[in-house]
Amino acid sequence: MPQKDIMRRPDTSTEPTTSRDPAAPIVRRAGRRAGRRAPRSGASLFAVLAASLLLVLGLAACAPGGDDDAAVDDTAVDDTAVDDSAAGEAAGDDDYADRMAEQHAGEQPLPAFAGDQGRYADVAVTTEEVTYSTAGGNQVSGYLALPEGARESGDVPLPGLIVIHEWWGLNDNVETMARLFAHHGYAALAVDLYGGQAADSAEAARELMSGVQEEAATDNLNDAYQYLTEEIGTPTVGVIGWCFGGGWSLNAALAMPDQLDAAVIYYGRLVEDRERLDRLDMPLLGIFGGEDQGIPVDGVRQFESTLEELGKDAEIHVYEGAGHAFANPSGERYQPEAAKDAWEKTIAFLDAELKQ
């Protein structure tokens, strides 16, 4: 059942001020809204390889004697290439998991907004647990937050926002963020990619993150989009995530380029492949820390450069002196000033792209 929650919002009168913008942004560039749909799995690669194998065998059958061995050798090379590609992808996943584990070594998620010293004032929103997906054959529940009275008023349709958790899982910090977005006028659905589990240690978080299957997670996010548009009636939908969720925010944008209207990445794992990035068809905001060893700034700048060359509508901010997860008030790396600036940029970006 829906319930009225009391949540916390920024009280800017208690915030430190600065005359210098701590971010180093790039100028937003005009995006191309051409209709392109991203593939949702790697099936196309295997289809191409299978077709190539059939062609080789067909040519061998028609060729003069002595070419059979060459056909077999060509097939063997193709198999090796597939094996090497899969091994390389798995190694990349392990390397990323290791970097995240190193960044969060010895940490535990703190109670939401602990230590913020009264920076938040009380406001009311409505929340409920909803079943939004059956990805992987199981019912998946998420945390839906709406502005108070939104269902009753039925006035202006709300913009939707898919909220993706950090590597800790769907915990009270992520639920608090969903309530914050609801307070700003969004139908915010905090999704669950961990099957109802949340971690209280870096070791447990690494295990949960490593167990996420790409196809099931992509289906999960697609179902979240369908829930917001069909059940809530949101005319526009964006996606946002932090850390692990930041990477999946980008993945969602690549998987649903024709559906999503905006994407926000907070220090998430990035994609380097130009062909994949060319599928992006919505404005993108990236928030990163200059001292983040898990998502190195060199990779961020390369990502930024590639998007610029492709003519994508992207705005990247790197906060000098900030490390990984600097915007998480329930974490040990929280930096209030940089987090406040990033939050203001996030709300301004989402309002510009999603509110009509």
The N- to C-terminal Cα distance equals: 30 Å
Order of helices and strands: EHHEEHEHEHHEHEHEHEH
CATH superfamily: Alpha/Beta hydrolase fold, catalytic domain
Fraction of residues in helix:
40-55%
Instruction: Provide the structure class.
Output: alpha/beta
* Beta fraction: 15-25%
CATH class term: Alpha Beta
Unreliable spans are: 4-88, 114-121
Side-by-side strand order of the widest sheet = 1-2-3-5-4-6-7-8-9
| Number of distinct helices | 10
What gross morphology would you assign?
globular
> Average pLDDT across residues?
78
- Quick one: how many beta strands? 9
CA gyration radius, whole angstroms: 22 Å
- Tell me what the CATH architecture is: 3-Layer(aba) Sandwich
What is the total domain count? 1
CATH fold group: Rossmann fold
